[in-house]
Structure prediction request, 271 residues.
Amino acid sequence: MADWKQIGAVKEVQELAYLMWDKNWDEANGGNITYLLTDEEVAELGYTPGAGRKVDLKVPDGVRGKYVLVTATGSYFRELRDDPDHLLGICYIPEEGDYYEIAYGLEDNRPTSEFPAHLATHAARLAVDPEQRVVMHNHATNVLAMTHVGPTDEKEFTLALWRIIPEAIVLFPEGIGLVPFMVCGTQDIADATLEKMKDRRFVVWQYHGVFSAGHSLHDAFGLLETVDKVAGVYLEMKRCGCDKQGIDDQGLRDLCEHFGLTPRAGYIEGM
Prediction:
């Protein structure tokens, strides 16, 4: 049986968590990450279902039988590198029953309060792409600021980002989901996130933060970096009093044609 802390994904989470804290995206305990272990990583662990501490939770069907690496509730991302036993853990989701098992780590602790929203998001993304295994949430500064001063309609929010740089529509042609302000850690916000994530990889929680999904930790992080960058440029334009549109619809159509993209229906005139 392998030491769970030696799995590559555990070390990646520790390093990326510190990087996100260093970017000021995860102040105090403001962030959480989940990662679905691969079959190879699960075999390496050698865990016996039923052996861990059981915790009640309404479980979506799409994640049953999965092992989830998760950050702890109240965890400070700058400390994950030094205290994985308490601030990280691996949970097993059983094939039946509304509970999960804490298989490793999370000593005297429990998963993030956003665990229901994470599991709902994983279930939604797996239904689209069985290789998507990462969900991360944090308070990316520029995106958070944009929810205060930018469009409140998700179509206009997406278009504002697409018009900043060509890479935006290339990286998220399906658009950005925007969830109106809700109390975090509730089933309501988990359900709302689930609906958005059925056909998008990135969801913004108004006045709160973001959810980013991907095939790997660096894939989800790269998407997050890009969205926060273009949101930052949007804010700089606002500070300068610039109301220019940026890349127009023809430019967006040209990008889609060149890169073979199918943008979200109804967002770009003529597409």
The first strand starts at residue 31 and ends at 36. The mean pLDDT is 93.
